[in-house]
Amino acid sequence: MRNRHLFLMMICLFGMTAFGFLLGQFEERRLVWDDDRQLLEELKIQPEPLPVYRGAEGNLASASGIRFEEAVGSGVTFAYDNGPENQYHLAETLGGGVAAIDFDSDSDFDLVFVDGGNPVEWPSNRTSRVSLFRCEKELQYAPVKNESGIAWTGYGHGCSVADVNNDGFDDLLVTGYQSSAFYLNQGDGTFEEANIVKTMTADHWCVTGCWSDLDADGDLDLYIACYADTPRTLPTPVCESGGVRIHCNPHSYRAVTDLLFENLGNGDFVDRSDSSGIAAYREYGMGVVVADLDRNGTMEIFVANDGDRNLLFRQTAPWIYEEIALTSGVAFNGQGETMGSMGVACVDFDRNGQLDLLTTNFSHESNALFHQVGPLTFVDTTQGTEIDRSSRLRVGWSAIPIDADCDQYMDLFVANGHVTQMPSEDWAQRSSLLRGGPDGFEESRNAGAWFETAWHARGACRVDLNNDGRDDLAVSLIDAPAALLVNDSSLSGNSIQLRFSGTQSCRSAEGAIIELETASGTTMHVLMRNAGYLSSNSNVMTVGLGADAAASVVRIHWPSGLTQELRNITAGQSVNVIEGRTENYR
Amino acid sequence: MRIADTYAVNNHPAYLCASNNELMKFLFLSILFAIGGFVIQTFRRPTVEELEYQASVAWNETKLAEAEQLARQALGRSESSSRAKEILSKLAGPLQRPEIELALAIGNQNRSELTEAQFTEAGRIAMHGSLFRIADQLFAQGIKKYPGSYSLQRQYASLPGLQLNAEEMQTRLIQWSKRGTLPKDLVVMFLGLASLDSRAASAAEDWLKVSLAADANDVESRLGLARCFLAMGRYQECIQLLDTHCRDSRVAILQAVAHATERNVRAASKLLPATEPTVMKAEFWHATGLICVEQENWKDAEHAFQNAVRERPLNKLFRSRYCEILRRLQKNKEEMIQAEKLEKVIRIVQVSINTPEISDRASLLALADMCSEVDAAEAAQLVTAVAGK
Questions:
Q1: Residue B387: HSE in the Cβ half-sphere, 13 Å Cα cutoff
Q2: What is the pLDDT of residue A57?
Q3: What is the ipTM of this complex?
Q4: Chain A residues 36-55 with a CB less than 8 Å from chain B
């Protein structure tokens, strides 16, 4: 019994000793200096985790129905070489274009790509920077070597295809850094260089050339957007972002004026840059479109500039232009900001019977869709739309309007890729495919495997590669083989294809406006070979009819001023329309 | 022994008496042991120097939590322990606890007793640590006590800039201009801020997120981040960020702007006050204008954007929207005037970003003239004040 008491006492004493120790510890804790915590309590400061931003990826709509599959084993092996690494020359950022051209007149579209190389070193043994691929059979191409007669060795960007001398054969303008060239198609699958353009462009940095009949005299004149005055020497200025060396923006260099040439129709051109008023503006020119935007019978010129206000020229007298971008609402975006604009597309997106303009822009700016709401009155309607969301974090280049599902609403392909390897942004970027509809655009989630990969995409053009009556795409990529994207859209509507031959107008009918009436409504289209950034579309116009079996009226407004109507063109037809002739070739 | 026997023994008087004595002894011993334990614990505590040393070792071994505890113990023992303060100061960064550094700057002093240098330093630390509310409070208190302090005025005026609040920054700069000479860089910063674009906004996103993560009740930082999202076109994030129970009317107005930009007229209309509020008037009119545009009510949209421009003449967005409406209404003459003003505003912003362009008095006066030409009288006044006589 006594032992038991003793045991209990021992336990209690041990407990009390422990209590004493703990009291000592408590005193130690009480001494801890905690003014900082009091400070936070004063203001009820609480940390809070913020939601993680998922960028445009988080907002992808589930648009389905339009998709493209990359053609495998086509034989098109071209990859744009923009120059050696770590050189940081500005020319390396622009990339190259692609053009659909039937250079051998076999009715199949061939493809031409323009290459770069090293912008500062042009050795004498340099190979041609123009790659021509002949269509052998459906989706099969073979490179055309020296026999084409094209041996241009400059640092290239753009390829503008048009029948400049009205002989029925596609000619080729190659624009580039401090060197450009113009090749006349001989009609036998070969080209011959016409030195006139080389002389006129001298050592200008020419980006996009755009052929159009500006004086309605039946031949194609030429507007060239020019970029900057950059020396072809090293070292070039190198900028830094987040401790990483990057290409500088164009503002590190002096902007240059654009060029405007009148085609005299006899093989000669006259430089109208100064006398027309164009040369009064010095911006960093990139994409160009020429179209009769206000349908008054004269062509307007819209130039997308990189990091500066865009330009819109209206003709006030023959070969005299007035710049009206500011009051037309296309100089800046809707937020009143200058944009780093690259490419431009011109089409009636909202089906109000007036041509709209879309510029692809630098990252953090979003592409800008300017709806024409009245003659030469534009409103930027991009903010808060899918175009805004899908383009905010990407740098856009070619913008190709394409009715992929032939539902009469224009869809939109945008080639994306950053100019330089910035630490906070993706260098390679996924291109975008947006499906148009009555309520605007939705980005397609199921666009095809090619769209799942990030590329350095630049120039692109629209062409029916497999002759299935639907437009496909060819895309030029930096440091990767070009992509031929074949239209694989489901739920496709009906379509017709139209080819135009001008007689009073220029033979290529560039700029003709076509109104199409079907049972479900009217659509308007413009024949525009120039694809807005470094590239050229095919001259075949594919027009969607949706569920309608025929176009009751096809009304053509030729550049000459003549209006011509075709009636009851049923779906699935391919029609050759000749200006002023009642019979058509189907 | 049976249970009953045991009971009998335990209740025997002799047993109870002996048991009481033993209990007393036991209690006495217990207390003695407890005191002993306490004394031993107290005496075996390491000294301040030992704690400082151990904290240093823990810091060197990157045992940050242990280092903090030891340094705090040392400081608890001796408030003058400079070594402990140094270690805590070093720890504030890696632990992402700016309040530690702040507390070190203020110590246990009453705020009213702080010197000008202490206010400045403490405010700077709070600002650097993204504790903007504390910084703002310290600067405001400091200016009250030391109204002539250049450094306090400067920090106080620049703080709303960090929160992308051009309106407040202008107010503070004007107040300051009445008492002293304004620094050029702050006025230029304000000019750029008055017309926030996406690129400038993206630069602010990080620090505003850090600030809000540290202090969720900081309404100004929340509004700043919302402005940032709006400028970057991230409207859903803006709406989500402002979707709080906060009763600040500015939160509702900014959320209405985001909804209106996303063309959600119903949600925007619900949030907007029926009449012009006393705060964020420009944003109120901007949201109203956007709603009118969606309803194709061009006349009221014109009125709304005109008011937005009047409230914030240096804002490119409001001016651009106003021009668009005038174009739609085919008011060509007025549109031409406004378009030219928009171009001037864009020029003002470009100049304010490219500060070498405003290197002398003449260029500042030219900038002030441009501000006057776009009806930004207060901005013109500020730039003129910087140019001096």
A1: 18
A2: 40
A3: 0.82
A4: 36-37, 39-40, 43-51, 53
